[in-house]
Amino acid sequence: MAEPLDRYDAALTTPDMVILELEAADKADAATQLAKRMHDAGRISDLEGFLKHVNAREHQLATGLPGGIGLPHARSEFVSQTSIGVGIAKYGHALDFGAADGPASVILLIATPASSFSDHLEVLATLARSLSKESFRESLRRAYDAEVIAELINSSLVFFDH
Fold it and tell me: What is the pLDDT of residues 99-122, one digit of tens each?
């Protein structure tokens, strides 16, 4: 029997918030494409307002992690629930997020409500731990399936009570 459609209501990410073969002009364009998916999913109320917060954060400190990961993030009053947009860059379309070891091919846009500071730090820390494992990064890159990618992200944050 098929699972009910609402099984993703509380999930951090859903297949709708995953972009396979992402082609973006730069990191701001990547964040815009991912934020639009979150906006369409009802997780972000004001797309432009949220992106201003992401860009402000991006100017404070580079959000590239070793291993080809971009982790743009922002807390914002325009976010209704903690959410993660996932972009897997199309081959040859990796983006510079300022990591010392080169451009990012996996981009995770983290959006948390302005009020949930501890949630924001917890999600960032847990994702960074998962992403430090090459096997996890490779699983994301090789999945080629939005459902599988959403499941990988959600299960890596399974402790997270939202």
Answer: 999 999 999 999 999 998 888 889
Angle at 148 between CA 14 and CA 35, to 5 degrees: 35
Token pair 């934020």 is found at: 35
The pTM for the full model equals 0.91
CATH number at residue 95: 3.40.930.10
Closest CA to 112 of 137, 77, 63, 65: 77
Contact predicate 104/70, CB 8 Å: yes
Domains in the chain: how many in total? 1
3-class DSSP string for 13-32: CCHHHEEEEECCCCHHHHHH
